[in-house]
Design brief:
The chain is α+β, with helices and mostly antiparallel strands. It has three helices and six strands. Helices cover 27% and strands 35% of the residues.
Amino acid sequence: MSILIKGKTVHFDDRYLHVELDDGRIILTPMSWYKDLQAATFKQLSNYQFICQGTGIEWPELDYHLNIESMLMSQTKDKAA
């Protein structure tokens, strides 16, 4: 059985991208992983939408797309290195 990891809300601060999932979990990843997002303005970061049945996030003004599941994969990959 495949379970989709779907986003509910997105928040950010100067250090982390926070994605709350529809099941209540929250994923935090360093903003430094996303150079395009790190360079964006608050207004640009606030203009996001969920895509692909809620499994991805798009920032249309930045032409930037992020698969939520990849946030988990990156954490594992970086810890193993």
